[in-house]
Amino acid sequence: MPPMARVFVTRQPVGDALERLRAAGHEVDVWPDGEPPSREALSAHAQQADALLTMLSDAIDADFLAANAHLKVIANYAVGLDNVDLNAAAAHGIPVGHTPDVLTDATADLAFALLLAAARRIPQGAEAVKQGRWGTWQPDGLLGVDLVGTTLGIVGAGRIGAAVARRARGFEMRVLTATSRSGTPLDTLLAQSDFVSLHVPLTPQTRHLIDAHALRRMKPTAILVNTARGPVVDTHALIEALHAGTIAGAALDVTDPEPLPPDHPLLQAPNVLVVPHVGSATTRTRTAMTEVAVDNLLAGLAGEPLPHAAPRPATAA
Ligand code: DGY
Fold this sequence. Notes:
- The protein is α/β, with parallel strands linked by helices.
- The chain has two domains: 6-101 and 283-301, Rossmann fold; 104-274, NAD(P)-binding Rossmann-like Domain (Rossmann fold), CATH 3.40.50.
- The longest helix has 19 residues, at 283-301.
- The strands form two sheets. Strands 7-6-8-9-10-11 form a six-stranded parallel β-sheet, with helices on both faces. A five-stranded parallel β-sheet has the order 2-1-3-4-5.
- It has eleven helices and eleven strands.
- The chain has helices at 18-23, 39-47, 62-67, 86-91, 104-119, 122-130, 159-170, 186-192, 212-217, 235-244, 283-301, and strands spanning 6-9, 27-30, 51-54, 73-76, 96-97, 151-155, 174-178, 195-198, 223-226, 249-252, 272-274.
- The chain starts with 5 loop residues before the first strand and ends in a 16-residue tail after the last helix.
- It binds (2R)-2,3-dihydroxypropanoic acid (DGY).
- (2R)-2,3-dihydroxypropanoic acid binds at residues 56, 78-80, 103, 279-280.
């Protein structure tokens, strides 16, 4: 019996939820390499497929969608959808799904881990120990910042921002929130916050939201945390701000570009901590993301509404 549908999966996801696709009679073709398929390979596989399970590193742009308008559904293995042209997908009638909710806590945990690591200079301490620079206990050795009573500015009031705010309240921090429509004005938040944590999706409106002007608004003692998307911050402006002491430090899960080459000038800037886009990287969360992506695929292939559909783009018809 021929398969009901063919699904191309661009990387091996965590867990065994793909078995649910096979159990439903679908053929599942998983890209076998550790590195993502090239654009050509992705297109060639998409031509043979009815549905795609894509990663945030796959560029699902207007040209790709025009060439693959036959697709019945695309399930993105991320909550962020900046790698997918949602307007083009809508124009071709291709439903797009994503993986919200299940990664909220893991990403908020990572944002808080970065905040704490930067505040208490954990990477510097660990490096000193490894390099044999653990001398006699010093009254002023590796002095950091207390969290209690400080202000955390959260930019973006979605699920992850709200989860970070809950954690901050547990640390007795004052929380300010700025959104595009409400809350504290961004300039005020930047001027008053000891820590600024970014939780906005990457859109044309949020690209370089944190630019040289925004960085100048921040306190010279402030630390910037980014677990959203790298291009929300102007990398060049950030490097300059760190060298100039405009802000005290940056702790980043996401960068522009990604991956960040080891000789990138950002890594030479003082007080910068970078981890390789691991916000959702726990076994439980990544397993749950696969389940959600498969739910989206099964619904899309059955011609049903996706349980976790992408938010409708503002400009879509
Ligand atoms: C997302 O989901 O958008 C994260 O960046 C990766 O899990």
